[in-house]
């Protein structure tokens, strides 16, 4: 077995057996920190020995045996042992080593109780929520410090400190390794459920970062919930939480669009919901109801999720039933967040006025001051009431509060849509429209300067306060004749292109205008431009380009391919990985009849550029596209999520590096 194989085996075994091993050790030594230390010693021993001796038949028992021997050695060395520890050390050292048999028996008898005890210890209310979460994922989830840090977007030292502080607190309090009884059981169980649901929620809707979901955390929370349900089958709220997580997780595949953007519940493709998880959720909800009596908070929330799961379409959702469930939940769990969810249900069942009336009462709630969902919900209800300007402010406030990038993009898009709707309601001037046109995120600085010259002249001659609706193609033609009638063809055509772009943008925004429905540049004919032969770069300058150490692999490959093939930049940028013939040193352009051929220099670089990719655009942009502007399917790499490199970006990079245009790379 190779060292890499051994590492994978150890990692897999650790995730499956760590909770049982640590739980058994805590029962022996009475200290969570020591127990994990001995378990980690066993893990290191496995990493050292398994590559030579292969994985044992019962790896969990092997790790337990090694960890127990470390515990015995520790007890022997500890000079401050009390009599009970001394007797335990004597018994463990003289008794025959039956670790494997002990573990097998424990799996059937005590180990389940030990894991349950460990769960109650790691989620002790004396620990902060962050410490409980980190310690639970470390001890019961088998996750490494770096995995926990990556999941919650914090640094590894921060997670390590939380775990260390939690262990010290438990040791100082001498928390007994037992399942509490009586009134304390309910409080401690609530803490355990809170931690598991917190982990699930962080995975279901990430509070920060570039991803809308973190499936690994959802799966880990589900695993812990199912484990707890098996260890405490008589606790109704445990089954309620499991039901809630199963039903919510069933929607995961439908919650994001092709570019990773969030998809609202009423817009989801319900055919993509996981029916197996839905059935498991229904079964868990039935178990939660078996003890009788009133339902707890998690079971009530699961009942809400079940109403959504039963509806074949969004229109069939029983919002009246959901409203009644939220009213019951508000009595059991009277929190502002529950009231906000109830406001949404009221709006769906009885109209947006009813929902907004309740949502407005929550604006002054201190607990919701930094919660982005409150302005998001109010914005949605205001849109349904036709109050678009108020809705725009709410969506912009919600976008400023959230740290999740996909969600922020969706909220800003909704704010922009509301701004457009508000403009249509109140009218818009030429100055307003020109300002909005030039402030778009998709325009680079050079384009803004160029377009700005055109729009400034139109505003000066036609007036800033001129209603956009009244601007005509004839007026624009008069301005052009006066300003650029004697200008060079290239100048005339540049300003004409700016007006055409403005017309297309305004029409797409639905802005009210007369001739905008056609084209404000309709009276402006394109002037012919003399086209001189583009002179290629000097050979010494081209050869010096390949020696530059600062060139990225993508730029080096693109520029060398353009030079060796003498093909146009558009054809080269249109190449796809699946259409390359590396052996023949050629590529078919967009699966068409034309081929681009290259020589040995490009042939040497291409395998490194496409390493690990089998399809999609050959040359990719630096970043993934935002959820608000998804590219055409053919311009999106299915393996990396990045879009095809645009001609404008490629030209810009080359000009920044050399001062020349891409056409000058062609061999003369």
UniProtKB/TrEMBL annotation:
GO terms for molecular function: DNA binding; sigma factor activity. NCBIfam families: sigma70-ECF (TIGR02937). It comes from the Bacteria. Belongs to the sigma-70 factor family. ECF subfamily. Residues 532-668 form the Tyr recombinase domain. Keywords: DNA-binding, Sigma factor, Transcription, Transcription regulation. It comes from Streptosporangium album. GO terms for biological process: DNA integration; DNA recombination; DNA-templated transcription initiation. This is RNA polymerase sigma factor (Sigma-70 family). Residues 428-507 form the Core-binding (CB) domain. Residues 619-640 are annotated as: Disordered. It holds the Pfam family DUF6596. Transmembrane segments: none annotated.
């Amino acid at each position: 077995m190779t060292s890499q194989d051994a590492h994978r085996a150890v990692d897999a075994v650790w995730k499956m057996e760590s909770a049982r091993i640590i739980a058994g050790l805590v029962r022996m030594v009475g200290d969570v920190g020591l127990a994990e230390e001995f378990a980690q010693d066993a893990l290191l021993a496995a990493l050292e020995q398994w590559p030579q001796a292969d994985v044992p038949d019962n790896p969990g028992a092997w790790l337990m045996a090694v960890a127990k021997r470390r515990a015995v050695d520790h007890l022997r060395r500890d000079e401050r042992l009390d009599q009970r520890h001394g007797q335990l050390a004597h018994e463990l050292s003289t008794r025959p080593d039956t670790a494997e048999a002990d573990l097998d028996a424990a799996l059937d008898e005590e180990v389940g109780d030990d894991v349950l005890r460990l769960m109650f210890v790691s989620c002790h209310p004396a620990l902060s929520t962050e410490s409980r979460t980190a310690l639970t994922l470390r001890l019961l989830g088998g996750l490494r410090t770096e995995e926990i840090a990556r999941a919650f977007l914090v640094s590894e030292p921060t997670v390590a400190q939380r775990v260390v502080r939690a262990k010290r607190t438990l040791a100082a309090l001498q928390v007994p390794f037992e399942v509490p009884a009586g009134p304390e059981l309910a409080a401690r169980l609530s803490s355990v459920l809170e931690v598991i649901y917190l982990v699930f929620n962080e995975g279901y809707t990430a509070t920060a970062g570039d991803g809308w979901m973190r499936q690994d955390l959802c799966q880990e929370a589900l695993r812990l919930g199912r484990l707890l349900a098996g260890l405490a089958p008589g606790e109704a709220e445990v089954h309620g939480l499991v039901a809630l997580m199963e039903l919510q997780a069933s929607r995961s595949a439908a919650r994001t669009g092709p570019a990773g953007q969030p998809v609202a519940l009423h817009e989801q493709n319900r055919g993509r919901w996981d029916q197996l998880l839905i059935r498991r959720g229904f079964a868990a909800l039935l178990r939660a109801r078996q003890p009788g009596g009133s339902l707890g908070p998690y079971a009530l929330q699961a009942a809400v999720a079940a109403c959504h799961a039963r509806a074949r379409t969004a229109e069939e959702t029983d919002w009246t039933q959901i409203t009644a469930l939220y009213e019951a939940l508000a009595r059991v769990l009277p929190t502002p967040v529950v009231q906000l969810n109830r406001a949404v249900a009221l709006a769906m069942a009885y109209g947006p006025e009813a929902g907004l009336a309740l949502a407005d009462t929550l604006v002054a709630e201190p607990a919701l001051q930094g919660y982005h969902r409150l302005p998001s919900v109010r914005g949605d209800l205001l849109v349904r009431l036709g109050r678009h300007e108020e809705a725009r402010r709410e969506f912009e406030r919600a976008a400023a509060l959230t740290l999740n990038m996909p969600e922020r993009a969706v909220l800003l898009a909704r704010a922009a849509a509301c701004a457009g709707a508000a403009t249509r309601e109140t009218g818009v001037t030429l100055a307003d429209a020109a300002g909005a046109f030039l402030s778009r995120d998709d325009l680079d600085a050079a384009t803004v300067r160029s377009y700005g010259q055109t729009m400034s002249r139109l505003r000066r001659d036609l007036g800033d306060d001129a209603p956009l609706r009244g601007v005509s193609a004839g007026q624009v033609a008069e301005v052009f004749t006066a300003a650029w009638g004697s200008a060079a063809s290239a100048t005339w055509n540049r300003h004409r292109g700016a007006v055409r772009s403005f017309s297309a943008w305004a029409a797409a925004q639905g802005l009210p205008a007369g001739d905008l429905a056609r084209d404000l540049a309709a009276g402006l004919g394109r002037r012919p431009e003399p086209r001189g032969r583009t002179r290629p770069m000097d050979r010494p300058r081209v050869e010096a380009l390949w020696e530059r150490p600062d060139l990225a692999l993508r730029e080096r490959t693109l520029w060398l391919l353009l030079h060796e093939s003498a093909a146009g930049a558009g054809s080269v940028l249109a190449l796809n990985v699946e259409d390359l013939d590396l052996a023949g040193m050629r590529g078919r352009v967009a699966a068409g009849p034309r081929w681009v051929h290259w020589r040995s220099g490009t042939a040497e670089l291409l395998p490194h550029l496409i390493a690990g990719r089998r399809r999609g655009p050959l040359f990719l942009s630096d970043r993934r596209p935002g959820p608000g502007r998804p590219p055409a399917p053919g311009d999106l790499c299915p393996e990396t999520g990045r879009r095809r490199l645009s001609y404008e970006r490629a030209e810009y990079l080359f000009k920044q590096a050399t001062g020349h245009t891409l056409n000058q790379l062609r061999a003369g």
